[in-house]
Hints:
The complex is a heterodimer. By secondary structure, chain A is mainly α. In chain A, 76% of the residues lie in helices and 0% in strands. Chain A has a single domain, classed as Up-down Bundle (Amino acid/polyamine transporter I), CATH 1.20.1740. By secondary structure, chain B is an alpha+beta fold. Chain B has three domains: 40-139, no CATH class; 168-282, no CATH class; 294-465, no CATH class. Chain B has helices at 2-21, 40-51, 81-93, 113-121, 168-178, 210-222, 231-238, 255-262, 292-295, 298-327, 335-345, 352-372, 378-395, 401-415, 420-440, 442-458, 475-478; strands spanning 57-63, 69-75, 107-110, 124-129, 135-139, 184-191, 197-204, 250-252, 267-271, 277-280, 460-461, 464-465. A five-stranded antiparallel beta sheet of chain B has the order 1-2-4-5-3, covered by helices on one side. Chain B has a five-stranded antiparallel beta sheet with strand order 6-7-9-10-8, with helices on both faces. A two-stranded antiparallel sheet of chain B has the order 11-12. Chain B starts with a helix and ends in a 33-residue tail after the last helix. Chain B: The chain crosses the membrane at residues 306-328, 378-398, 404-426, 433-456.
Amino acid sequence: xxxxxQTFSLWQQTxxxxxxxxxxxxxxxxxxxxxxxxxxxxxxxxxxxIVAFVSVWMIxxxxxxxxxxxxxxxxxxxxxAKKNSRMGKWLSLPWIILYLGFMYLSTAIVSRIFGxxxxxxxxxxxxxxxxxxxxxxxxxxxxxHDLEVVARINELLxxxxxxxxxxxxxxxxxxxxxxxxxxxxxxxxxSLIKGAYEAIYSFSGYEIMLIFFAYAHENQSKVRAGxxxxxxxxxxxxLIVVAGIVVFGYEELQRVAxxxxxxxxxxxxxxxxxxxxxxxxxxxxxxxxxxxxxxxYYAVVYGLRQLFNRGLGFQRLISAIMFIxxxxxxxxxxxxxxxxxxxxxxxxxxLILNLGIPALYLTMLFFRGVGRKQxxxxxxx
Amino acid sequence: xxQFWKAWQKRKDTLQEKALHHHTDxxxxxxxxxxxxxxxxxxxxxxxxxxxxxxxLVIRRFRDKRDTDCAIVFLDGMVDRNIISEFIITYMTNxxxxxxxxxxxxxxxxxxxxxVIRNVLSGTAVLMRNGESKxxxxxxxxxxxxxxDEPQTESVVRGPRDGFCExxxxxxxxxxxxxxxxxxxxxxxxxxxxxQTDIYVMYIEGIAHPPMVQEVLARMEKINVDSILESGYIxxxxxxxxxxxxxxxxxxxRPDKVVANLLEGKVGILVDGTPFALIAPAVFSQFYxxxxxxxxxxxxxxxLRFIRIISISIAxxxxxxxxxxxxxxxxxxxxxxxxxxxxxxxxxxxxSLVEALFMELAIEILREASVRLPGPIGPTIGIVGALVVGxxxxxxxxxxxxxxxxxxxxTIGSFASPSYSAAIAIRMLRFPVMLLAGMFGLYGIMLFLxxxxxxxxxxxxxxxxxxxxxxxxxxxxMKDLFIRAPHHLLRTRPTMFxxxxxxxxxxxxxx
Lengths: 381, 511
């Protein structure tokens, strides 16, 4: 009876992508983009999303060649000879490690950034370690469950992520100075590319679909799901950057660490039921960070489980073990400056990884013609 | 590693197998399963021996026209004496015992001792004759029963007033009376080695998903317990996740609710001896949906659903929000209110967490006490507890006035849920969330909510995800989730229970 739910619907895939990519990036996005593009900062999520679109398209295409298989599983087919599957396993190992390693690191860094925000702005007396550990605990609890739970929890939480953001963006328009956006098209081509690059890291997260696309309900829905997911992220990001620029202006934006949080502080609830909103916003924001951290962590743990070809029990065990190094990685950067630097390194890593791996695999497929054979086999069976 | 793994799995399997095959009739084991003898005295002795010292066992001996020794055996109080007298009179005038004797409503014959004793225990009068190794079982069951009454726990303003009672056949008749569908299937089961409780499993063939029905029946057959005293036993033994705080099977006292759910493709379970029927599978919407929603016009039904959702959220979160706001985020409260709150709290010696826990505990005690108290005193205690103690606690400076309001609203909110057992889950979860709010403020509340949501989305009731149709998203099911769409838009049944006949209303002709 349970077999009919192991597949993800189009909406579940879309919400997986959107909720994973909306994470801590949105808290700093107005500052980082307007640092390069000034008043045209809102263009950078638009241009950054192009890269994400291309990448997610490649990931979806790759997954379409191997329906029902995750990145871990089809890697051995892509790299291996038909008879000698052991060789494929060894040749694909570096790519798998690169991929899982990236998600592992980004789990750590995202929860570190989130912990930093919470500690500096809401829970002033709480140690950073406690916030990080509780966030990991949540990810751990999720990784105890089956795959379908991940899809369902994302589906449930997506409205809880989108609504506060949209509310904040639209509510802050009350204080908007729309002239801050002018002049409209002053940015040069090179600065546009640089600005787009700034936004790319906030789009990363969709690479979890290298694993989760395997469980798509229909093979054809993958590309659409990817596009919808990225498009929703792009819309939210653009809206937030526009709100940041029109409320503060780009000069002021450079002087605040967490511009989106400042945006929240300026908004007022009509009727004055709550006087200040930033604590409430950060509380709701936990869901956004949770979906980013937990989805990535789940993908890592699930990938390891498939790599060793084991069951759910192994997944639970490994997720408990992987915890401990994760904690130390999260506490590695000594201060907020180092943390931002680490995060920008991860941005480069994500760019190379998300474009490189799918492109590499697709070229491999093209030259070896593996995918076609695989498709035929599926058609027969 | 994997060796160990396999060994462990194997051991688990063998243990499970053992448990499955260990299905013996423990209490009936003492009685030897022998054939009845030709001599009536021997038979009576065997029955007396089998039942031990039973002073309510009535053995009425008499001689019929043909001068054969006869005996009627039954348990006092379990039978309708009128039927027995009538039976004896008819028998005396015509001792042929045709199986279709008109005076008796059901007449069967048997020749096994165990069968005889089992029937005597369930209220059958057994007729035996000398020289025959047979016993005639005459269904004379008739004990005093409570009449059909208004349901105590689920009252509605508009809707039928009859509720289930303790007798199985009356309860199933209440359902039949509303649902004259020839496709209604009733499966009889006897569960409980000592209590031998009769159970009906009901579903509508052609609507209910057959594998789901099979699953329910299979799980019920696996039950191997000595007693079923209430449907709660079955609920707890066949639910999917035994450690979950959320009820995965719905219970109700209302026949109309059972019928409505049968029509949605669910399975109803009626248990003898309790007015609470079970409905499986259950989803999260049981927390705030009431049968009344469908009887009233849809505007008010939708509004009431929203009010119930709000009150459930209040029951779960209000005390912890108070703790979080007053201890961690006072800047969020409007400044005038925060001054008033601070003035109220100035005499309170405890942190707000202790204050809230203390008050919530007090209200739980009050609630429990008023359930136990005899009828007329109950409300008095409510007034004394709520008004006098609350007022005195405030003026003594033990709690702040705001806290009293919060506790009162929380308690009232928890009563707004139409299902009592669903409200219990909310009531319990209030305490951990208060503790987390005391530790991390709003962040703690969110942590808790996410954990609960993870748990809820992993829950399944007989293969149906607990949060459906919200997740997995089913737009058609959304019409009857938060809002209650008008009936002419609810033309199909909700699909999440894998119903077979989807159509509820074919053509909608405007009047």
